[in-house]
Amino acid sequence: MSGGFLTLEGVRKEFNGALAVDTFDLEVAQGEFVSFLGPSGCGKTTTLRMVAGFEQPSSGTIRLAGKDVTLTKPNQRNIGMVFQSYALFPNMTVGRNVGFGLKVRGRPKEEVATRVREMLELIQMGHLEKRYPYQLSGGQQQRVALARALAIKPQVLLLDEPLSALDAKIRVELRSEIRRIQRELQITTVYVTHDQEEALSLSDRIVVMSAGRIEQVGTPFDIYNFPKSAFVASFVGTLNRLHVTVADSRQGTVHYDGQSVRLGGPTPEHADGSKVVMMLRPEELHLGDGGGENRLNGTVSSVTFLGSVVRVRVRVGEADLTLDVLNERRLHLPEVGQAQTVTFPSHACWVLAEN
Amino acid sequence: MTLSAAPAALAVEAQKKGKAPARRDRLTSWLIFVVIAVYFLLPLAATFYWSLRAEKGVLGFEAYRRLFADARFLPAFSESIVNAIVAIILSLLIIVPTAYWVTLRLPRLRPVVEFITLLPFVIPAIVLVFGIIRLYSRPPLLLTATYDSSRVVLVCVYAALSFPYMFRSVDNGLRAMDVRTLTEAAQSLGANWATILGQVIFPNLRVALLSGALLTFAIVIGELTIALFMAQQTLGPYMANLTRSKVYEPSAMAIVAFSITWAAMGLIAYISSERKRL
Lengths: 355, 278
What we know:
Chain A is α+β, with helices and mostly antiparallel strands. Chain A has helices at residues 44-52, 94-104, 109-122, 138-151, 168-185, 196-202, 220-225, 230-235; strands spanning 6-15, 18-28, 33-37, 59-64, 67-68, 79-82, 156-160, 188-193, 205-210, 213-218, 240-248, 253-256, 259-262, 275-280, 286-287, 294-305, 309-316, 319-326, 339-344, 350-353.
């Protein structure tokens, strides 16, 4: 994924002195699907709007296909945008909405009509060309918005939380639809979301943001399994955090609640006796023996049946350890209050300094 | 059995008690409606009755016939209509881009713009007209020298008079749609400001624009004070002259003016009821 088709260099944005985006550097390769993931107010939408041209960066440069577009007007950037609220023009039919971009570019009627048909076939809505937006469901409206953005053959497609207004089932359906279309057209795509599942399932790379800064950039696998900060670790996926004391940094052992835990390797960056935070993913933990060389003893505090998995919380010392057990018919669920051993392999846990 | 019947009986009792105040409320509402209707309709009915008595001993439309036969009526009427239409166009051209820009880029200025558009309500028409005459009747802004130039000033004043209605109509229409996102969507598709206003904003504001336009029409069509002091031969001064010289025709004229206003209001109500579909 080297070579930036879309490049942001040192992009900063301030609103009345308040920093919204701080020194944002990113290279997006042609055909790549990159997601900006972060909580509300982290600057992801502002960054996207700067790429679209709706906001001017306070400093920094944005390049598209090697051309500096930092000061280019939004209507001259050839960037397609899909909004959370669909933003279909209520006075136009589906067909006219999709053809709007080509029409304002002065394309011949026949070309517009052909492209509209192509786009509607792509989103499997060819039969609804004459409908008005108010006659469509939310999912259909967002499909039309996607077709409208793609009809102009944009160099980059930007999607600003496009699935947030839809119900869960439609969201999952449309998610795979967006990925299918993106792969089919090989279009460079930047997707903004606060939903980690969306980002993990759709993206080639994820940019995790917090308080206007990039926390980490990586593949979904790297972001989930090798988070570089406590923020990324806790924001992406469910995480168990235990405040432990380093017992032997060369051996890679820590103590928690009077029990010893072996880490995946030495931790020379943390002195013996220092307080650190140990992270564990729920799916790496096992109830009872057989889950690995580490074991912690505690008491079951809750059992929640979620369908395909059962989420169990085990109280160990001052903290609850959350773990997921795959459901099966012969599963014997533990009871609340019952003494329980939790086991996990040493490679499942990693430590970060407190704060 | 008894235990289960008791709550049922209580429920029926409560239902009866609930129904009685509801019926009383409905009766009160109707009573208020009738009183107000009589208050408004009685003078109108009396005017209409009076307008039918032009011929001795019979009720008929003689006053209306005389009114429409008067050589001064139709020119005054058509002049008022033209003035109203031009004032509406002028008002739209000023208010729509202003309200759009305030919504999109300068929301902090909304109270200021609202206040400015309300000024025609605050300043009495007589003060307004003397101010205008003083301002425009001496060089370098000598615009009241001829009938036609005065008419231009009059139309501009009418446009200003319509600002409170037009701004509110347009502002409500803009608030009902997501102006910012629609604008940005159109921009991302390559549209310039003129295309955005002409193809996206105006068509989606048509109900609001029609409401504002019809309200303006209703105000301008019978306006008296300003037209009179600017020596314009429109419907307002014509009606005033008529009152001084005729007996039954002023009543007929009042009914015609009412009918025009009501038709405009009815059209607004009809278009508004279609809003959901749009």
